[in-house]
Amino acid sequence: MRLRLLCHAVSLACITGSGSVWAQTTTKVEKLEITGSSIKRIQEEGALPVQVITRQEIEKRGVTSVEQLLMQISANGTGADNLSSNVGIQLGTTDRNNNGNSSANLRGLGASSTLVLMNGRRLSTHGAKGNAVDLSSIPFAAIERVEILKDGASAIYGTDAIGGVINFILRKDYEGVQVSAMADMTEEGGGNVYRGSITAGWGNLDKDRFNILGVLSFDRQEILNGGDRKFSNGYQPERGLSPDTAGTPYATHTGLAGTAIGASFTTPGTGSQTYNRANLLSFQNNCGSIPEQSQYEFGLWNAPGFRYACAYDYGGSAVLIQPVDRTQIVTRGTFKVSNEMNIIGEIIASRTEARKQFEEYQITTTGDFLGMRYPVGGPYYNNLSAYIPSFNANLPIAYRWRCMECGGRTIETTTDAYRALIGIEGQLNVWGSWDYKMGFSQSGSEAESVLGSGYMYTAPLTAALASGQVNPWLLPGQTQTAAALQMLQAASAAGQRLFGGEAELTQFDGNISGEVYQLPAGAISVAAGFDYRKESYKFDDGSRTSQPVYQAPFDPQFPKVERTIKAFYGEIAIPIIKGLEVTGALRYDDYSDFGSTTNPKVSFRWQPIKELVFRGSYNEGFRAPSFFQLYTATTESPIPGNIADPVLCPNGNVPGADLSVCAIRPNGQQGGNPNLKPELSKQYSIGFVASPASWVDFSVDLWQVEREDRIYELTPQQVIANYTSMPENLVRGANGRLDGQGGYIRAGFVNAAGDLTKGTDVGIRFNWQWEGRWTASMDGTYIDRARTRVLESNPYTELVGAWNNRDLWVRWKHFAQVSYERGPWSFTLFQNYTHSYDDQRPSNPPAGWNSEIDKYITYGLTGVYNGFKNLTLSATIKNLLDEDPPFTAHNLDFTPGAGWDPRVADPRGRAYMVRATYTF
To answer: Which CATH class, in words, describes the domain spanning 2-226+322-357+412-453+494-634+671-698+705-710+752-919?
Structure first.
C-alpha cells in the first residue's frame, strides 16, 4: 500500500508549486534567515525541510483565507481546527471554542504543538481558545510568502514547536498603491466570500532612506446553512446513519415515574416488551409529516424502548459555515539610519466578528428541569390513552421537545488582536561582518462572546412551559399563540455575555550571527540570541453575572494569571569537508511556573554531487502546559451513570452484587493541575533532494515524532478503569467510600503516557519550456504510524486510517498542480487529494454497510491575465467537478458534520472566484 501510494504520488505531474527551499531558483545571492535557523545564509544552503509558498502561488491556488491555505498543506493535520468543525457547545479546557477562530495543526499533534510566527516572531494566543494562535488574525492580504518548517524547532524557538513552525512573512519595502477586490461565489448559493484591500507604500530605502507601508483589508464570509446542501443529511438509515434523539418539534413523551406514561409502558399485541418513549405521530406512522422529523430508528441504535419515538435531524440542519466579518490593518515603517542599521516599527491589528449557530434547543423535562413538565389540564395536553392502556391523564407529561420558536442557538464572538513592534536590524563590522536584530513587541488577543437568539433564561422558560400556554405538539399549519410567543420572547437570553478572554504577550528578543573561522571546506558560522517573554491570560465567565441560562456553555473562570520566560540559545554550522555541513543548536528556557528545560538539535547537509543533497536532523522539544491546563478551577459533579467501586466491588455489578458499592454514583473532580510538567518530544527527519536533470527535482523525507509526559484530561471513568496505576486518585470519605462524606474520584489534567507519529513527506517539481513555460509539482504526506496510549500500562492504539472524533490520521494527503504561462496569460490546474479511512461504526450496522469512507478528490482551475496596463485579472473555478463530500455514518455528536466530515471536505461545492488588482 505504501509503495503504491508513493509511486502514485510521484506519477502525478499535476503537483504543488512549493517544492523544497533547496530547489528554489534565485538570481540574487543574498543571505536570509530561513525558518528553523538563526544563522543568516544563502537560501540554497538550508538543511531542513522547509516548504515555501509565495504570494503568487497562493493566488493561483484560489484560496481566500489562511485557513484554506493550511488545509492544502499535506503536513497539516486533518482535525477539527477550521470554522466548519466547531461541533457543539462543549467548549472545554482542551479545545476551547473556535467561534471565528481556526488553528494550524502540523503533523496532527494539536494546535498547541504548532508554533505560528509572523515575520519570525511569536504572536499572542487567541483570547478565548487560549492555547493556540488564531489564523484569522493573520493579515491574509499582506502575506508575501509562507515558510513551513516540517521539523521540530524547540532548540531555536522554544515551546510549541514540536509539530513544526509556520512563519508568515508579510510584505515589506513596497512602493506605490495597489487596490484589489475579490468575490468567491458558490454555484448552489450560500457561503460566498468577498474581500477588498488597499496597499500603499512610500519611500525607497536606498534613495530616500525610509519606507512606509500600509495595508487595509476587509473580508466577509457569508453563512452556509445545512439545508442548502443535500449531503448534509443525518437521516440515511439504509447507510447506517440516523439521529439519536427524541427531542423533536412535535414533542416525544419521556418515560419517568410519576408522569403520564410512567417509567415505562406496554402496548397491546407487543407482549412483554416495554417502552419509554412515545410520540403520537409515531403511533400513526406519520413522524415525517413534520420537516426534518423522522421515525426513530430504534433497531439501528439497539434501543427497543424507543420504538414509538420520533427523531429530528438536528445535524443535517446545522450551520455548515459560520458567517465571519474581518477587518485587518498592517502598518510598517523602515528607516535607514546608516548603511549598517535599520529601525523598524510595525503595528498589526484585526477585528473578527463571527456568529456560530447550533441546532435549536432540545428541552428535556427530567432531572433538574422537572418543573418544565406539561401540566394536567393544560389546553394542549397530549393524551395518548388510545395507544397506551396504562396512560394516566391525571399526571403531568415529561417530554423532549425541540423548541423551534426559540430559534437556533447563536453565539456571537468578537475578537480584537494586535501586535506592536519596534526593532533594529543590520550589520556590525567588528571582527568581521555580523548580522544582528533586536526587537521589543507587545501582542494581544481579546475575545468576547455574547448569546444571540436561541438561548433562554432557565426561570422564565420553566414558568412558560409549566403554564401550559406553550404548545409542544404543533401540527403542520399550526402556530403558537401570541401569548405563548410573548412568554418565550421574555425568556430569551439574547445579549447575555457568555464569556470574555484576554491573552497578552510581551517579548524582548535579539540575536546575532556571523562567520568566526575559515576552514578548508568553508567558514564556521555561529548565532546566539536571547528571548525574554511575559505571557498572561484571564478568563471571565458570564454565568456569574446574571441569572442562569438553560444549558448554556459556560466555562470555569479564573482571574489573571501570568508567567515569565527567560531563554538563551546558540547555533553553530561547521563545514566538515567540501559539501558536508553539520549544524548544532542548544536552547535553555526558564519558566517561572514550572522550571527550566534544555533542548538540543543537530542537523546535517551533505551534497556529494551537484545533483544530490542528503539532509537530516535529530532534536528534542517541549510544550509548556497552557494556563487552562494549569489553573482551571477544580469542580466536582456527579459522574453520569452508575459505577462499581473497584476495591469494594472487585467483580463488578454482576447478578447478586451488593448494589451499595457496586452501583454508586460518586462525584468526579475535574480541573487544572498546577503540578503539570511540560510535554517532551524526541524527533528526527532524514531524506534527500535530487535534481537528476535541469527540468526536475524531487525530495523524500522520513520523519518521526515521539512524545512523552503528554498532557491529558483524564475522565473519572478512566481513573476507575486504571485504578491500580493511580490508587491515590480514589479519594475516600470519612465512611471509607467514594460516594458521600467527602469521597470523590480525582480526574482532570495529568502528565500521561506518550504517542508516536511516523511518516514520509514527498515533493516533486518539473519545469520545462514548450510553446510557453510549464511547471508541475506535488507535495504529499504519507502517515505510516500514529499510535497513542493514556498510561504506560495501556496497550498502544493505532490511529492511522481509523475514525476518530478529534483528529483523523488519513494515510495519504497531497496537493498537486500543473501551470502553463505564455505572454500575458497563465493557467493552473490543481488537485487536492485525501485518502480514504474507516468510518465510525453504527451501533447496529445495516446489511451491506460500507466501513470505508471514500477518498476525497477535488480539482480547480485558475486563469490569470495581465495584458492590461497596471491591471491583473484572475478567475478560479473551485471544485471543478462539483464533488460532494464523501458519506460518513456519523452524526453531529461530539464530532463535526452529519453525513459528511468538514475536517476533510469543503461544503461549498463548485464555486467561482474572480479577482481584480490595479496598481497605481
So the answer is: mainly beta
